[in-house]
Amino acid sequence: MSNESEPRILSLIASATEIVCALGFREQLVGRSHECDYPADVEELPAVTVPKIEVGGSSLEIDQQVKDVLRGSDAMDAAYGALGVYDVKLEVLRELDPTHIVTQTQCEVCAVSLRDVEAAVAKIVGFQPAIVSLQPNALDDVWGDIMRVADSLGARERGEALVADSKRRMNAIVEKTEGLSDIPSVALIEWVDPLMAGGNWMPTLVEMAGGRSLFGKAGLHSPWLRYEELREHDPDVIVIAPCGFDIERTREDVPILEAKTGWASLSAVENGRVFVADGNQYFNRPGPRLVETLEILAEVLHPGGFDFGHRDVGWEPVYAGAQTGSTLATVG
How far apart are alpha carbons 261 and 18 in whole angstroms? Predict the structure, then answer.
């Protein structure tokens, strides 16, 4: 096993990869998960995980596959370390010989879980890397996770600087939105079929951006949502940002919503305030780019007040139509 003084870091969740790189440890990153794709050059690194499901299916098919896999995680699975939705490639793990492995316990659907990693490590004789487990249930937890990674790598000052800069950028937006009288109601959709609303850090970001989140509670997992609830609350703005989907893939799911009774008469639809966003790169990655996620929400909710240049990159309108928003002086 490696005795090098420099850390050899394996990140098994996309947000952690971004944290590691933002802290200045890109050159010490030796491996990644199959989903880690930012910064772009990390895709050159070997992937240590592989999904057990077919990720190219429809949203409903993906959801059913995930539920089937998790339902099948019985005692036999536990004995062999096959507990979640992803497999760990033991041979690749052994070859990379990392000194640090960053994983998570927040969601078994999002990435390899802590127990999967511990089961894999236990199979390699003499292998004792430091395992850093993240659990970002709320926005403040993300800052704590950044510090957890920084501390594990002996870079506390870098972590403090990254957190401080992220908060500074976010607070600059909050200072512009906290006194607004126009606070649109927002439905942030994290999955389309079946419907799921955004939870965890997302309600907080909606409020920071000058909106009122209708579904989901800050710090709690994303809840399932009945379409009848969406119609009943009739949100001013609908943001569709499914976990793991980019804008193009998200647009494929819009017809599922359009086929539902009363969709066309929703206020957000009539006023052209339905948007698709890149949930994979931004909304569902609890790392440094939650700052950009807040910027996207600010642009969407208050188009007269914010322009950070994310349109057509991080989000797009679904329908042509008037966007009513605040009349703040544009910032960016």
Answer: 41
Given a contact cutoff of 8 angstroms between Cβ atoms, the answer to whether 317 and 272 are in contact is: yes
Cis peptide before 235 (omega within 30 of 0): no
User: Measured between alpha carbons, how far is 266 from 110 in angstroms, rounded to an integer?
Assistant: 31
pLDDT digits (tens, 9 = 90+) for 65-88: 555 655 555 444 444 444 566 788
Angle between helical axes of 290-301 and 156-177 (0-180°, round to 10): 10
pLDDT of 123: 83
Q: What are the CA-CA distances from residue 256 to residues 129, 191, 214 (Å)?
A: 45, 11, 21
Q: CA-CA distance, 266 to 279, in Å (whole number)?
A: 23
Q: Which residue has the tokens 């870079």?
A: 155
**Tokens of residue 41, six digits:** 């050059």
Placement of tokens 């036999």 in the chain: 76
In this predicted structure, what is the pLDDT of residue 70? 52
Tens of pLDDT, residue by residue over 228-286, are 999 999 999 999 999 989 999 999 999 999 999 999 999 999 999 999 999 999 999 99
What angle (nearest 5°) sits at the alpha carbon of residue 238, between those of residues 283 and 312?
60
Please count the CA atoms within 13 angstroms of the CA of 194 that sit on its side-chain side: 12
Q: How many CA atoms lie within 13 A of 263 on its CB side?
A: 12
Mean pLDDT to the nearest integer, 207-236: 96
Tell me how far apart the alpha carbons of residues 11 and 30 are, in angstroms, rounded to a whole number.
8
- Tokens matching residue 239: 């943001």
- Which residues 6+ apart lie within 8 Å of 265 measured at CB? none
CA angle 290, 118, 46 (to 5 degrees): 60
- List, as one string, the DSSP characters of 95-146: HH--SEEEEESS-TTTS-BHHHHHHHHHTSTT--PEEEEE--SSHHHHHHHH
Q: Omega of the bond prior to 39 within 30 degrees of 0, cis? A: yes
Q: Which domains does the chain have, with CATH numbers?
A: 9-135 (3.40.50.1980), 180-317 (3.40.50.1980)
Mean pLDDT, the chain, whole residue set: 87
